[in-house]
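in:
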């Protein structure tokens, strides 16, 4: 009988170890899912920011001192993309978090999970987005005014 007790406790210990390993594996899979969705959301925000600031650079004339031409047009586009990536990497305009929540929510819906993002986070993200879009519009307007009149 004593041997039976040792075997069942060993089985319980082995089962617990297997469960712990499965839990770690699930946690690692969730972290990978979050990392990939965060990267996709940040890439989306970078692209969005690049498109928002592109008109500011279109108003700047090409300086003949440093060349100009088709090459500068191409590199200016790359510069605007890099500005978008840098701004997004430093926190951006608050869009990436909202996009990530929606991506996770959509993935959860595909797999039959509940994935509700909090209403407060959505409202804060939307408010930050609207505030920053207004600031960008103001900067674009000021840039156009400066280009046409020379006044700030």
């Amino acid at each position: 009988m004593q041997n039976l007790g040792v075997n069942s406790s060993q089985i319980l210990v082995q089962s617990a170890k297997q469960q712990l390993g499965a839990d770690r594996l699930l946690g690692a899979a969730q972290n990978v899912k979050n990392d990939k969705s965060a990267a996709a959301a940040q890439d989306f925000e970078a692209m969005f920011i690049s498109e928002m600031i592109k008109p500011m650079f279109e108003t700047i004339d090409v300086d003949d001192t440093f060349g100009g031409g088709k090459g500068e047009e191409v590199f200016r586009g790359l510069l605007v993309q890099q500005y978008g990536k840098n701004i997004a990497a430093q926190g951006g305009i608050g869009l990436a978090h909202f996009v990530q929540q929606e991506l996770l929510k959509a993935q959860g819906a595909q797999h039959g999970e509940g994935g509700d993002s909090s209403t407060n986070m959505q409202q804060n993200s939307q408010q930050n987005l609207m505030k920053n879009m207004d600031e960008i519009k103001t900067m674009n307007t000021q840039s156009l005014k400066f280009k046409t009149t020379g006044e700030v």
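note: The mean pLDDT is 74.
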